[in-house]
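Most newcomers find our protein records easier to grasp once they have seen one. Nothing more is needed to start thinking about how sequence determines fold. Here is such a record, shown just as it appears in the course material:
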Amino acid sequence: MRESYLAGAYWGCRPESAEECAQRAETFFRLLSECHPSYARWYEQARSPRRALQLQFDPTRDTFVRFFGKKKYQSEGDGFHFSAWTGHEEKDQGGMLMLHCGSDAEVVPNSLRLYFPTEALGSERMLTASVVACVMRALAVAWEPDWALVTADELWEQLSRHGEADTFVGWMTYISRRWGTVPSLPEPVRVEPVEEKGSLIILTPERLTITNPEHVALGHRVQRVLEARGVLRRLLEQRPAPT
């Protein structure tokens, strides 16, 4: 069975300049390149793969400052957006990402979504625990989100419908220290610190899939514990009061 997985990082209202977003982007792409060789080259998104392959870029701070200075990458005066692709046309290789940063919007929070290749169970090259954990750490260190996760589309639909919070758990879940301390969780779940920024929760050492009822049950159980302890909460509740 082939399932579509993504890594998503989300943070509430955080106005940042083009220079600040560019510095975070440089850090993220540098850390991401250490996770897997497929993340070594990047191209701007375009209307066709042929055109995109002509738009390779070096993911440095100066490059992103230049990108964010262009109107097409500005979100109507409220932050910046950008999409990139690894240049792999095969669905089982590489991936693409979509970024929105620097926004003070009350409705749509800042976010980064990284789409993994579609890989069959048992033949993973990028959807391995070591690569995915590396990606999650890169997201946490560079962007300092409130919440991040890696999940499959089907698991997203299952777990996001439970509980009152609009956040939920995935195969791996990152929770910022700003939201509190992650409690002890049942085996085989592991909780690992990410510098001093937050905690990475890894539900299973193998790929979490909706076809395994034990995986789904574990996700529900862990989510209930985290909700009860108040470390899963609504993103937009984090907006600071005006001064």
Observations:
- The first strand starts at residue 5 and ends at 11.
- The CA atoms of residues 158 and 187 lie 21 Å apart.
- The two ends are 53 Å apart (CA to CA).
